[in-house]
Amino acid sequence: MLEVPMDCGSITQRVFNNQKFYGSLRSPIAFIRNVYTTYELQEMLLSSIYHPSNTYCYSVDINSKTGIFEKLQKLSRCLPNVILNPVKYKFDSWGHFQDRAHIKCLELVLEREWGHAIILQNDDLILKPNEHLSELSEVLNSTSMIYMMKPTTSQNYLSEADWTPAGLQLFKDESKVPGNILHKPMKIWKGYNQMILSKIFIKSIFEHLNLEGIIERFDRKEFYGIDEMLFQTLYRNNLGLDGQFISNCEEDIFDFGRLTKWSQNGTSDSYNLSCRSKLERHSICIFGVEYLADFLETEFVIANKILENFDLAPLICMDEVLRGKKKIGKNWISKVELRKYPQFREMEMKHSGTYDREHFRC
C-alpha cells in the first residue's frame, strides 16, 4: 500500500471520508483489535466503521516492521476515541499473547461508554453498520455472543493441570467465593478469537478475577489455538460473575459473531471448489469479491478473513454499505431470532426473574 500523509488534517479527512453527520448511538461499541501488518489497512478498516461515539483500541505485534505502531500513535493523538495500547506483544500464528493484548485493551477502554466490545484480529472485516450494531447491543443487553465447543486436549491445553479457581488463584478475594465454585475444576471450552462481549461481563471479570494465572496456563508455547479458550472458559463455568452463561448445556453453543468458510480438504496450501476466491490460509478460505453477496445477506457480524495483498474489493465495497450508501439485505437480528441462542434466553430469563438452571432447556 502507498504511504499516506500523517498530519491530523489528512488523517481525519481519510477516516471521516466526507461523512458530515453521524447519528446518535444509544449503545456505542468498543472495537478491540490486535494488529501486525500495515497501518494503511487498519485505517481503511477503521474508516468503514468509524463513529465518534464508539471506542477503538489497538494492540501491536512487537515484530511488525511497517511503522504501524508509530502511525497508530499519531492516529490516537488526532482522534480522542482511538486508543493505542502502549505495550507491544510477540504475536504468532498459534495465538500466543493475543489474550493478553485483548485484555489490556479492554482494561484501557473500561471506563468509556459502550455496551458491547467486539474482539478482532488484523484481517477481520465488520459486516454491519454502526447503527445496527448499536441496536443489536441494546437487544443483547447483558448477553455475550461467544462460540463454544470442546477442545482437543493434546493440542490446545494442559489437561492434567489443576484447573480449579483455587489452583489458578483466579479470584481476588477467595473468602467471598463458595467452596463449590472455588474447588471445582473448570471445564475448558474453545471457540473463536472473534467475539461480542457484554460490558457487564467484562466489568465483572475485572472486578472479581485475577487473570494472570489462567492466561499463563493457556499461553504455553507448546500449544496452538490458545487464544480461543480464555473467554469461552470464563463465560461458561459458573464463577458467580455477572453476564455469565451457566446453564447445564453439554453441547456446542453457537453464535453469529464470526463468518468463516473452512477448507473442505483441510489443507492450507491448496484450494477446492468450495473456496470461490481460490486462496486459502490455515485451512480458511480468504474472502474476495466473490463473497460480497454473502456479506450482504449474512446474519454474521465479522468476516474472517480478508488479505490486503490479495483482494481489497470486499473492504472497499463494504465501506459503501457500512456508510449507508448501499442497502444490505438482513439489517439486524430480532429478539425472536435471538431466542434460538440459549445464552440469550438465559440472560433474558435472569432479567425477568424466571431463570431456573435445573430446568433450563438448551
Automatic annotation (TrEMBL):
One Pfam family this sequence matches: Branch
Source domain of life: Eukaryota
InterPro entries, A to Z: Glyco_trans_14
MF terms (GO), sorted A to Z: glycosyltransferase activity
Keywords: Glycoprotein, Glycosyltransferase, Membrane, Transferase
Cellular component per GO, a single term: membrane
Main location: membrane
Keyword Membrane: yes
Localization: Membrane
Membrane topology field: Single-pass type II membrane protein
Descriptive protein name: Uncharacterized protein
Lineage: Eukaryota, Metazoa, Ecdysozoa, Nematoda, Chromadorea
